[in-house]
Write a structure and sequence with these properties.
heterodimer; A: 312 residues; alpha/beta; 9 helices; 36% helix; globular; B: 93 residues; alpha+beta; four-stranded antiparallel sheet; 4 strands; elongated
């Protein structure tokens, strides 16, 4: 594994294994223990720990922003972008006026490897693995699509009941510990104001709903903010994004992450689909990591700023 | 370790809703073991599909016989995966 002296010597322009990422997280926490802490929110099917990083300057259950990357394990640019963004937040606190003011009033949580079993599997056995690694009784096929396993229209159209499908929803909502761990944490925290779930690839910024054509109650505001966010994103490298509700922009998908978070009352619920060079799909070259993370960060900052300025 | 020698990723350009429907039918054919990286959604947007080597001929015949345009986005998936591994090793050293 890569030898790391501190988080500055880490190569952010390369892909890393689960062990390297977990070591990097420990390093960040030890370097900035006044700002960053690591929380163990659960364990995977194969008993790996599930960690989130908490950026906080104090207080209890302050209004908070959630970012997760890598719920689909093969989307490596998302975990890599999560690492870059976590480092960016840690570096900018105390230097950048916006990040400093946000962290003086709100907390930021980042889950960098949302599907650790799947991620480990992509590094060791199958680079193209997307799902969790739970076994399915009565089937030789393994894994559940964790973005069809949430309790939001679960079992409806836009998810498969076939364990061999890439979009298998699982036997019941929250059957996957990777999903249940987040559900339990978000419910027990009770004060998340924005929830951003990051995927790749097809350059889209989407908001609820995916399981129903009924527009979200806050559709107009979500739409306006999405446009503002992708406008900010495109200022850096001119990357063009589409935006809209999941069902109208891509297709019907039931049991999705942000449909659940929105129904829990987290108004600013968004999901990203990061860069598509049109040549590599999920195997985006490592030299694209930093540009991808940089431009995405501008959109995320826009969403965070709006959340900060519009308390509810 | 799963290998992808000879597997291709095809980028499919549909021209109308009928062709989208045909791709959705193709998606249902489980024996082909297709993995839609980007599902068929709208004629304005491409569909990307990972096709195992064993299913390549059948899929290309299906597309061509239905006049559906496609190009090869990734010629040999395994070689891209290998390239990625080499890059990771290089960055470590």
């Amino acid at each position: 594994t890569e030898q790391m002296r501190n988080t500055n010597s880490f190569n952010y322009a390369s892909y890393h294994t689960l062990d390297e990422i977990y070591s990097w997280m420990d390093m960040l926490v030890s370097e900035q223990s006044n700002l960053v802490s690591k929380i163990h929110i659960g364990s995977t099917f194969e008993n790996r720990p599930i960690y989130i990083l908490k950026f906080s300057t104090g207080g209890t259950k302050r209004p908070a922003i959630w970012i997760d990357t890598g719920i689909h394990s093969r989307e490596w640019v998302t975990q890599a972008s999560g690492i870059w963004m976590a480092k960016k937040i840690a570096t900018d606190y105390g230097k950048d006026a916006f990040i400093t003011s946000i962290l003086n009033e709100m907390d930021i949580f980042i889950e960098i490897v949302t599907n650790p079993d799947g991620f480990y599997f992509t590094h060791t056995k199958n680079r193209m693995w997307r799902k969790t690694r739970s076994t399915n009784s009565g089937s030789s096929c393994v894994g559940v699509d964790p973005n069809r396993n949430w309790d939001a229209g679960f079992g409806g159209a836009g998810a498969s009941s076939n364990p061999c499908s890439e979009t298998y929803r699982g036997p019941r909502a929250n059957s996957e510990s990777e999903v249940k761990s987040i559900v339990d944490f978000v419910k027990s925290h009770g004060n998340f104001k924005a929830f951003i779930s990051i995927h790749s690839y097809s350059q889209m910024l989407l908001y609820p709903y995916g399981y129903t054509k009924t527009p979200a109650a806050d559709q107009q505001e979500l739409d306006n903010l999405a446009k503002k966010a992708i406008d900010a994103l495109s200022t850096l490298y001119g990357t063009s994004y589409r935006y809209g509700s999941i069902i109208n922009t891509i297709y019907q998908a039931s049991g999705g992450t942000i449909d659940w978070t929105y129904n829990q009352g987290i108004k600013y619920s968004y999901t990203f689909e990061l860069r598509d060079t049109g040549r590599y799909g999920f195997i985006l070259p490592a030299n694209q990591i930093i540009p991808t993370a940089q431009e995405t960060w501008l959109a995320i900052k826009t969403i965070m700023e709006h959340t900060y300025n519009n308390p509810y | 370790q799963k290998i992808f020698v000879g597997d291709q990723v095809l980028r499919i350009a549909t021209k109308d809703v009928e062709q989208i429907t045909l791709l959705k039918d193709l998606e249902e054919l489980e024996h082909l073991e297709l993995d839609f990286w980007k599902g068929p959604t709208h004629p304005d947007f491409p569909t990307d599909v990972h096709v195992p080597f064993a299913s390549l001929q059948a899929v290309k015949v299906f597309l061509e016989s239905n006049n559906i345009q496609y190009s090869i986005m990734i010629e040999n998936l395994q070689s891209i995966v290998e390239e990625e591994k080499i890059q990771i090793s290089r960055s470590r050293s």
